[in-house]
Design a protein that fits this description.
Elements lengths: L3 H15 L19 H6 L26 H5 L6 E7 L2 H12 L6 H11 L1 H6 L2 E4 L4 H7 L3 H13 L2 E2 L4 E3 L11 H8 L3 E3 L4 H4 L3 E9 L3 H12 L4 E9 L6
Parallel strand pairs: 1-7, 2-3, 2-6, 6-7
Antiparallel strand pairs: 4-5
């Protein structure tokens, strides 16, 4: 009798012959599904310390622990901490856009592993993992919420509880791609709330909010504000990528 744990590797091997894994960026054949070729891996700027103790903005030089960037020194964000896997740049943009708009949902398990490494500290403190929600009409058109796929993959790896429907986006906000920070803040103000059925479960808990891209932080802050008003004691943010603009 062939055991299940022997069948799975055999099945994957056969599948890899028929449909060989390809680099998630450039499409060349590689060994493992959801991975990158050496060239694309080296072109992506993966983020790591030294970084702002609050928002995770990368510093170009070594700094003492708990150092804040200029923006967080001026104003503490609504969330407590934020971290991201890599910088959203020309070399990584295609990776995000394919996952978000081109049905590359099979990349989610690999992205979950990347998130688990980048957010190790945050996961240790988290009671719940919650994705940034899409409005129901956008979810209907796209057919899946990329943040929810990331959260579910991360939850399977970390064994943290994932609640995909805890937050609701009850206002259909405009796409924010070309908006300024001020416009983004106005666009998402009051757009999120906690579903009634999760109100009691949320009280006193620490939430890890998951999204695909952290740009200005306006959406993450709007979600964090809604979560804290409903009783969460802390909200950390973990994103697959983040925009890194020069700060003076």
């Amino acid at each position: 009798m062939v055991t299940a744990f022997r069948i799975a590797p055999l099945g994957r091997a056969v599948l890899n012959v028929v449909l060989p894994p390809r680099c998630a960026v450039c499409g060349v054949t590689i060994e493992d599904e959801g991975a990158l070729c050496a060239g694309c891996w080296s072109s992506i700027r993966f983020l790591a310390p030294p970084e702002c103790a609050c928002c995770g903005y990368p510093f170009e030089y070594v700094v003492p622990e708990r150092t804040l960037c200029a923006a967080c020194t001026r104003r503490q964000p609504e969330f407590d901490r934020a971290r991201a896997v890599f910088a959203y740049e020309e070399s990584s943009r295609g990776l995000i856009l394919a996952f978000k708009h081109a049905d590359r949902t099979h990349d989610a398990p690999a992205f979950g592993r990347w998130l688990a490494r980048a957010g190790h500290e945050l996961l240790l403190d988290a009671d719940l993992i919650v994705p940034v929600p899409l409005h129901r009409w956008r979810l209907f058109r796209r057919r899946y919420n990329q943040a929810a796929l990331l959260a579910q993959s991360l939850g399977r790896i970390s064994e943290n509880q994932v609640v995909v429907d805890l937050l609701v986006r009850h206002r259909h906000t405009r796409t924010q791609g070309r908006m300024s920070r001020t416009a983004r803040i106005r666009n998402v103000r009051g757009a999120f709330s906690v579903r009634d059925k999760w109100q009691e479960s949320l009280r006193g808990r620490r939430v890890l909010l998951v999204d695909d891209v952290l740009t200005t932080g306006a959406t993450a802050e709007a979600c964090a504000r809604a979560l804290k008003r409903a009783g969460a004691v802390a909200v950390d943010v973990l994103a697959l990528s983040r925009v890194v603009r020069p700060r003076h």
